[in-house]
Amino acid sequence: MEEAKGNVLSSKQARGLESENRGVIYVQGNLQGSERARAHQSGGTGAFSDIESKKFADPALRFDNPNPRGLSFIRFDSAFAAADNSHTVLVDSKTKLATWSKRTQKKTLNTLERVKHAVIQNPGHKVMYEFDSEEAAEAALTFIRKNGYSQYIEVGISKP
Predict the structure, then answer these.
(1) Contact call for residues 130 and 44 (beta carbons, < 8 A)
(2) Section 4-23 average pLDDT
(3) What is the pLDDT of residues 39-50, one digit of tens each?
């Protein structure tokens, strides 16, 4: 993970933005989950930390959330320009998609719905869920396709 000084906002600052809810911002965050998950999250292309806050800088895609109580942005783990510069790819690094129970599936479907709205409202931005194993990627892709989100979320496997 690179360290960079830029315009990295606190969560409070990000929630208080008054400009149009479009584009990418960077929000201070913390690495989550197991050691394996944190290593996977921080190793993504374009991942960096903020020098001033010493916190991870989460790229976040702004959008008009249909839930009036919800946030107007979705956090990701890294972001980078596509090789042909045609779009920005926002990456959510995962060890597996949370689909092991009805409750986690419902929460995951709510997240997929928010991602869908964010992608539709932000042409030129794409979302990829990136996994550290082919098995986890295949299971996630099956769930995403089955529930109608494959045109909004790509699935990939991270390179070691």
Answers:
(1) yes
(2) 84
(3) 544 455 554 544
CA gap 20, 64 in Å, rounded: 9
Asked whether the beta carbons of 130 and 156 are under 8 A apart, the reply is: yes
For residues 40 and 132, is the Cβ–Cβ distance under 8 A? yes
Give the integer Cα–Cα distance in Å for 56 and 3. 9
Cβ(81)–Cβ(46) under 8 Å?
A: no
Q: How far apart are CA 45 and CA 81, in angstroms?
A: 10
For the chain, how are helix, strand and coil distributed in percent, rounded to 5? Answer: 30, 30, 40
**Straight-line distance from the first to the last Cα atom of the chain, in angstroms, rounded to the nearest whole number:** 14
Is residue 114 within a helix (H) or strand (E), and if so which, with residue range?
helix 102-121
Mean pLDDT for the stretch of residues 79-90 = 91
Q: Which band of pLDDT confidence, cut at 50, 70 and 90, is reported for residue 30?
A: low
**Structure tokens of 20?**
């149009």
What residue type is 18 in one-letter code?
A: E
